[in-house]
Amino acid sequence: MQPDSQIALSARHGRSMARSVLAVIVGYLIFALSAFAFFQITGQPPHQAAAMPVMLASITFGMVFALLGGYVAAWLARRRHLAHAIAVAALLVLGAAISLISTLGKGAVWSQVAALALMAPAAVFGGWLRLRRLTDVR
Known about the structure:
This protein is an all-alpha fold. It has helices at residues 3-42, 52-77, 81-103, 110-137. It is built from 4 helices and no strands.
């Protein structure tokens, strides 16, 4: 391989890696900022007991935006679609697990459990939907 082509390959790899990191960050922010907005708008503290309608709305909202985050990460990445959605889900799981551990015995944990059990899989499903859309078009 010629030195110029090695430099070009290295530059392409660097752009691809930067695109991947950006895709995962944007995907996660779609979820995280929507959750922050939900709790701000409703005035419901996320780690306190909540009425069932508030819990159901929060969980539904979280699942929709987690799915959207996984889909957008897969779309932005332009490659390895499901891997990028899984990375978004992994960040979601990491945040929920840290929050759960720090909240145990100090408040309600329904939002963290819902993030682990329902929202993280929704992010992966979003990546799967993006992948399926691509294979349906081809």
